[in-house]
Design brief:
Shape: globular
Structural class: mainly alpha
Helix content: 55-70%
Largest sheet: none
Number of strands: 0
Radius of gyration: 14 Å
Length: 137
């Protein structure tokens, strides 16, 4: 259901570090991704009552379910947008490239590092408009 991804991100009962970011738009973007209030197929398909396996990403050729992990970790459509985030994260967490896509997305959304948090927020904030522009053109 809807809380599936949130449960992966939220393991402690505490105020999340990203909520301390000063930029409202970045905080909002991260919050929306964490609580599945976004336009990814995993949510759009839920409203259409599609089986999860049919909620496929329309932006890359991976034929993967378009969920939060796919969006933040491995959709080739966002590769250039994600590049700075990946470089910074690997510098701070050298083991990052060895993690599974799900582990990467959870780490990125739970990091205590303010620089990575800000990059994640920018990625999410700018990723959805890029996606929306592609559909409209």
């Amino acid at each position: 259901g809807k809380v599936r991804f949130y449960a992966k991100c939220k393991s402690l009962y505490n105020i999340e570090k990203y909520l301390e970011l000063t930029d409202f738009d970045i905080r909002s973007a991260i919050s929306k991704l964490r609580v599945s209030a976004h336009p990814l197929e995993i949510e759009k398909g839920r409203y259409k009552k599609l089986p999860v396996c049919e909620r496929i990403c329309k932006y890359c050729n991976l034929k993967a379910v378009e969920d939060e992990t796919h969006f933040i970790s491995n959709c080739s459509f966002y590769e250039n947008t994600r590049n700075d985030l990946s470089i910074l994260t690997t510098k701070i967490y050298p083991y990052f490239s060895k993690l599974s896509d799900e582990e990467k997305s959870v780490l990125l959304l739970n990091t205590q590092n303010p620089h990575i948090m800000e990059k994640v927020g920018h990625y999410v904030l700018h990723g959805f408009p890029i996606r929306n522009q592609t559909i409209q053109t």
